[in-house]
């Protein structure tokens, strides 16, 4: 019972992070299950089955708050489902011994990507426009495959790619990615069901993660407007990197002084990313304040200030600390 309560709390925290950041539910949950000794395929299968419920709740909540672009959802969901089904089939056919370092490597890479992504502001000087269907389809296919084979990765692959495009408001990027993930999680679960059978799902674990996620989903859809994503992304990225480094170090059979040296290096990188994230957040808020002052002074000055701040400040996202879009 204590373990299930802990898993429910993990599901709640993971959904709060995912709903307000657009990523990391699968990364956080899968990392914990791997540390607990769950086989990679079973961990990914259980997380994706729980995500069917959490992503449905998150999608409805984001829709209610106006955070969903349905054109984007329809164009990334189906390719994402195809990629997720293929990824689940691949992971189901790999032995536990071979899959553990593979999955840890994917999670480690995605965690490192989060550190880099949120340690600096994205450029904001791109003009608006519609995203091409070809780009969205390819993105969904890759993100879905990585998500199923790594136990998480849909958000870390899809969300930054859409943010960098500069053609969508950040809150709509997060809401659309979370909503499309419902289809992706369902396809991955079908793939694991075919590859592993019903016994491949840890149903008590699924239930605990699901309950925690359902509680957090509506709150996360509201928090996306106010949470400092710059700091949240860097913090979660560091946790994922350090946790999965343990499996990789063990697989590489590093011993002696090499092991603490690697951990020290990773911790130093995490600290540096947090410092840079704080600086980026401060620049974002300072630029927003300057833009507000310029607006009160004159419309022309406001345009000049906004243009000068492009590349560092997302005016509509200053509160979240992520880069501005549009």
SSE arrangement:
Layout: H1 2-21, H2 25-35, H3 40-64, H4 70-92, H5 96-118, H6 133-150, H7 154-165, H8 170-196, H9 203-223, H10 229-252, H11 258-297, H12 299-309
Helix pairs in contact: 1-2, 1-9, 2-3, 2-10, 3-8, 3-9, 4-6, 4-8, 5-10, 6-7, 7-8, 10-11, 11-12
The CA-CA distance between the termini, in Å, is 48 Å
Major sheet summary line: none
User: Mean pLDDT, nearest integer?
Assistant: 76
**Which class of secondary structure composition applies to the elements?**
mainly alpha
What would you say about this model in short?
By secondary structure, the protein is an all-alpha fold. It is 78% helix and 0% strand. The protein is globular.
How would you characterize the overall build of this protein?
The protein is mostly helical and 326 residues long. Helices cover 78% and strands 0% of the residues. The chain contains twelve helices and no strands. The radius of gyration is 20 Å and the shape is globular. The model is unreliable at 302-326 (pLDDT under 50).
Keyword list:
mainly alpha, 326 residues, single chain
